[in-house]
Structures are given as C-alpha cells and as structure tokens.
C-alpha cells in the first residue's frame, strides 16, 4: 500500500489561474513534507517544505498541511506555462542517524494552457 | 548552491555486467541516497547512507549494493545487471537535522538513465 497518494492527472489550468495540487499520506509518523517539481527528463527540484499545520507561502506558491486529515496541498497562483511539470509530494521520517527518509507519491502532471 | 553530480547521464549495459553508478556532492552533506524512478511507480529508495562506511537498505535493495568510502561520494553497484534494472537512477544528498523539528530537504543529481539489454 502506497504511503503517499497523489492524483496522476493531468491537471489542466489556463494561464493566470490557480493550480491546486493535493496529496494524502497514511503514515502518521511523517513529520515533514516537501513538494518537488520535475520537468520531463530532469531531476526533481525542491519547491516548498512544510512541517507545521497551516499555510506556508513563498512567492506564487503556498503549501498547506493538515496533520489531522493527513493532507498536504500546493497552490500555484498566476500559473504560467513554465509551471507545466510533474509535481511530487514527499513525506519525511526521521532517520536513526539524522535527516529525513522521504517517501514520494507518484506525482501529478500539471499543464498550464495558453 | 548545492551540487550533486552523477558520473553518467546515459548508460547502456548488457545483462550480467557489473555496473557502477557514481555520485558526488560538494556541500559536505552527511546523508546520501540512491533512488530509482519508473513510470507509474514514482521514486523508490534503494539504499541510503548517513555516514562514511554506513549504509542502510531502502525499500527495494535487492540486486543492488552500495559503497561509501568518502563523505562526498556514494556509489551504487549492480552486481549482475538484469533487464528489470533498466530505469532512471537518481542520487540525492542532505544535511542532518538542523534543529529539533527542522529537517533538511534532499537535493538531487541530474540522474543516470540506465538501459540493460
């Protein structure tokens, strides 16, 4: 059973709209959450990290975490064609030696249309 | 900026060959990771290391081994490559916990697309 679930999409939004990407997780031991963006043929790059319940904003991106509902989301405001990519949600567990062990969802493909 | 490099972007090997994938990071990170990424399955952790000469199995270690002799270098070894090991292999690194409850993100290398014929 997957520990981090995402809708694979594609999610299509018009340019300038808000894109809403969602993720659920099953392991209540997960303590940190990350959103990565991955362009086709490229490696993942970090967009946002969130550790506490509530919202965290960074430019056009807002991450939301609800630990009671085991739900994480990413909002992208004023979506641009350059935002078209696959977005990976990951939940982190503490490693014995320090740091995170991440479990990734399979990703949601976002398409921003002109 | 953190830089994680991998020895090859594309690699083609034959069944039964021994394959070495090398990863080097230049930011003095304690933790290093090897993942494979396959369509529909996402990123899956093969092995990780949180210190020199230390290694821990991830979710899919079968058919793989690793080596970490120096802090900056983490190698993935396919002892006898098989066709089901054709995949994109991604290396990542991270610092240990910065402070209580503040965990460090993983930074990824560019990936190695391995094809086993």
Write the layout of secondary structure elements.
The complex is a heterodimer of chains A (114) and B (117).
Chain A: E1 4-5, E2 11-14, E3 19-25, E4 32-38, E5 45-50, E6 54-58, E7 61-66, E8 71-76, E9 85-94, E10 100-104, E11 108-113
Parallel strand pairs in A: 2-11
Antiparallel strand pairs in A: 1-3, 3-8, 4-5, 4-9, 6-7, 7-8, 9-10, 9-11
Chain B: E1 4-6, E2 10-13, E3 19-25, E4 31-38, E5 42-49, E6 56-57, E7 64-70, E8 73-78, E9 87-94, E10 107-108, E11 112-116
Parallel strand pairs in B: 2-11
Antiparallel strand pairs in B: 1-3, 3-8, 4-5, 4-9, 5-6, 7-8, 9-10, 9-11
Structural description of this entry:
The complex is a heterodimer of chains A (114) and B (117). Chain A is an all-beta fold and 114 residues long. Helices cover 0% and strands 56% of the residues of chain A. Chain A has strands at residues 4-5, 11-14, 19-25, 32-38, 45-50, 54-58, 61-66, 71-76, 85-94, 100-104, 108-113. In chain A, the strands form two sheets. In chain A, strands 2, 4, 5, 9, 10 and 11 form a six-stranded mixed β-sheet that branches. The radius of gyration of chain A is 14 Å and the shape is globular. Chain B is an all-beta fold and 117 residues long. Chain B is 0% helix and 51% strand. Chain B has strands at 4-6, 10-13, 19-25, 31-38, 42-49, 56-57, 64-70, 73-78, 87-94, 107-108, 112-116. In chain B, the strands form two sheets. In chain B, strands 2, 4, 5, 6, 9, 10 and 11 form a seven-stranded mixed β-sheet that branches. A four-stranded antiparallel β-sheet of chain B has the order 1-3-8-7, with no helix packed on it. In chain B, strand 7 (64-70) and strand 8 (73-78) form a beta hairpin. At the A-B interface, strand 5, strand 9 and strand 10 of A face strand 5 and strand 10 of B.
């Amino acid at each position: 059973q997957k520990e981090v679930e995402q809708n694979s999409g594609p999610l299509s939004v018009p340019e300038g709209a808000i894109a809403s990407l969602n993720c659920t997780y099953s392991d209540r031991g997960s303590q940190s959450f990350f959103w990565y963006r991955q362009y086709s043929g490229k490696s993942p790059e970090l967009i946002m990290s969130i550790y506490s319940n509530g919202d965290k904003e960074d430019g056009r991106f807002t991450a939301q975490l609800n630990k009671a509902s085991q739900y994480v989301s990413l909002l992208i405001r004023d979506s641009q064609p350059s935002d078209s990519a696959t977005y990976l949600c990951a939940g982190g567990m503490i490693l014995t030696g320090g740091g995170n062990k991440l479990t990734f969802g399979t990703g949601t493909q976002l398409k921003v249309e002109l | 900026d953190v830089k994680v490099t991998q020895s090859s972007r594309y690699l083609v090997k034959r069944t039964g060959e021994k394959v070495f994938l090398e990863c080097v990071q230049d930011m003095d990170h304690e933790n290093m990771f090897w993942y494979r990424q396959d369509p529909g399955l996402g990123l899956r952790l093969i092995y990780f290391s949180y210190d020199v000469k230390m290694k821990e199995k991830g979710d899919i270690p079968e058919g793989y081994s690793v080596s970490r002799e120096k802090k900056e270098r983490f190698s993935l070894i396919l002892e006898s490559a098989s066709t089901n090991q054709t995949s994109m292999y991604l290396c990542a690194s991270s610092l240990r916990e910065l402070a209580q409850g503040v965990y460090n993100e993983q930074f990824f290398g560019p990936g190695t697309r391995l094809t086993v014929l």
